[in-house]
């Protein structure tokens, strides 16, 4: 029997099986974090609130750059409500309905300067977002990390917002909006990544959706804030959104620690241990075991130490070596371009609908709440590819429907301008419906 056991026993112990099953970084962090407690979850939600300040800077121009209504003063007989623009009228023949300081358009007399100059600040903001997205992306993975990158972005965005309130002309205003867009380009990304890396896998979906919910709350706060300052300077809007954002950045600096995962990937094991101990204390736990798993976890794929891991462009280099990653990135960028055009284009142009600006923005923001709830319910149940295809297809079908309803509404408004006798005298089509002269 002993001879049989000896014959079947391996001559050498296979240590490779043990090494091949070394724990990953995510598994190691999950073990030391334990169950996500209320304190840890509240800290992640506090971090997600950065999205609220981000959305305020994105959509604030809907009110600050709005074109105010005007009226005739009665000093010129050529002035009438039907006049398309007061640009051809003497300055004494018309006046703004509200004080000129309520909008940059009226304060700096941009109404007659052309649409290019009126839209310059908003365009500068999104150009800054594009530039920041390209130039700052790798800093969160390399030199600064998630926490420092987020703090730098929020502080820079807030300072730019405060300075915007003191802009002397439209050119300085547009330049500062570019800086604000450049700085805020990383707020959403760093917030989402850092908040999800501070909780267990079970709560990542909830924390992720909480960020989008906070974005909607920030969007919803703008109509209330704008209505409060409807008769005073537009500069108050920037001060009341930027100063609280600066105060919020102080809370983040004092209460939120760096991502343990990023620290492990960068080889800063002692800092990762301290971060994990802080997280464990929030859950009412204390780590009494050794941190031997941190030394055993495999970090070769993430650290990229042998291929220029300390370089700012290490992530780009790693992606360039993976053609499948480039194809996926190209597909995501294409979809994001279409989604972004609709998502940002509609709220930023809601003032052109002719309806109440405050209510229109509020309804637009409220429409995002059901989508956040639906996202929370579907996340983890339906794969991402199907979700993107299905939801973008629905959105694409709804946009033409909006145009049809708006056209019908415009026709109703046009018909309201005619008297009963004039309406009856209009020509009729084959179905017996009156046709406007413009349509004939």
How helix-rich are the residues, as a percent range? 55-70%
Radius of gyration: 29 Å
What sort of overall outline do the alpha carbons produce when their principal axes are compared?
elongated
Structure class: mainly alpha
Give the termini distance in whole angstroms.
105 Å
Pfam families: Sugar_tr
Main location: membrane
Transmembrane segments: 116-137, 149-166, 206-225, 237-256, 329-346, 358-379
Domain Major facilitator superfamily (MFS) profile: 40-440
Please tag this protein with its features:
440 residues; two-stranded antiparallel ribbon; elongated; disordered N terminus; disordered C terminus
Describe the structure.
- This protein has helices spanning about 1-10, 15-20, 25-35, 40-50, 50-60, 60-65, 105, 115-120, 120-135, 145-165, 170-185, 185-195, 205-230, 235-255, 260-265, 270-280, 290-295, 300-305, 315-320, 325-350, 355-365, 370-380, 385-415, 420-425; strands at about 70, 95.
- It is mainly alpha-helical and about 450 residues long.
- It has a two-stranded antiparallel sheet.
- Helix 13 packs antiparallel against helix 22 (about 370-380).
- The longest helix is centred in the C-terminal third of the chain and has 33 residues, at about 385-415.
- It is elongated.
- Residues about 1-20, about 300-310, about 410-425 and about 425-440 have low confidence and may be disordered.
């Amino acid at each position: 029997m002993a001879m049989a056991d000896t014959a079947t026993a391996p001559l050498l112990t296979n240590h490779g099986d043990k090494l091949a099953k070394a724990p990953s970084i995510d598994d190691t962090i999950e073990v030391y974090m334990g169950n996500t407690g209320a304190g840890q979850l509240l800290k992640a939600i506090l971090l997600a609130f950065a999205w609220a300040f981000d959305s305020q800077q994105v959509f604030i121009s809907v009110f600050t750059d709005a074109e105010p209504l005007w009226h005739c003063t009665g000093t010129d007989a050529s002035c009438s409500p039907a006049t398309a623009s007061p640009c051809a009228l003497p300055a004494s023949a018309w006046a703004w309905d509200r004080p000129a300081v309520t909008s940059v358009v009226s304060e700096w007399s941009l109404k007659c300067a052309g649409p290019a100059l009126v839209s310059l600040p908003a365009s500068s903001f999104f150009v800054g977002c594009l530039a920041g997205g390209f130039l700052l992306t790798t800093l969160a993975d390399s030199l600064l990390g998630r926490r420092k990158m987020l703090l730098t972005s929020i502080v820079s965005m807030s300072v730019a917002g405060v300075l915007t309130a003191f802009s002397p002309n439209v050119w300085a205003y547009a330049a500062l909006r570019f800086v604000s867009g450049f700085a805020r380009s990383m707020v959403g990304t760093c917030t989402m990544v850092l908040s999800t890396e501070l909780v267990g896998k079970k709560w990542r979906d909830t924390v992720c959706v909480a960020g989008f919910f906070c974005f909607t709350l920030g969007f919803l706060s703008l109509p209330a804030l704008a209505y409060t300052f409807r008769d005073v300077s537009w500069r108050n809007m920037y001060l009341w959104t930027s100063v609280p954002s600066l105060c919020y950045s102080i809370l983040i600096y004092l209460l939120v620690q760096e991502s343990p995962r990023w620290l492990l990937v960068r080889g800063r094991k002692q800092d990762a241990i301290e971060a994990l101990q802080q997280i464990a204390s929030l859950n009412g736990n204390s780590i009494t075991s050794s941190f031997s798993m941190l030394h055993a976890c495999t970090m070769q794929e993430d650290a990229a130490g042998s291929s220029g891991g300390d370089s700012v462009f290490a992530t780009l280099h790693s992606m360039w070596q993976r053609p499948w990653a480039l194809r996926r990135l190209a597909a995501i960028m294409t979809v994001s371009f279409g989604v972004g055009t609709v998502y940002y284009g509609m709220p930023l142009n809601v003032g052109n609908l002719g309806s109440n600006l405050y209510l229109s923005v509020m309804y637009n923001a409220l429409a995002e709440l059901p989508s956040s709830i639906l996202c929370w319910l579907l996340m983890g149940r339906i794969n991402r590819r199907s979700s993107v295809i299905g939801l973008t297809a629905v959105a694409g079908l709804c946009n033409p429907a909006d145009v049809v309803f708006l056209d019908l509404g415009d026709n109703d408004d046009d018909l309201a301008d005619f008297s009963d006798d004039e309406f009856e005298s209009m020509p009729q089509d084959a179905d017996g419906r009156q046709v406007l002269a413009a349509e004939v």
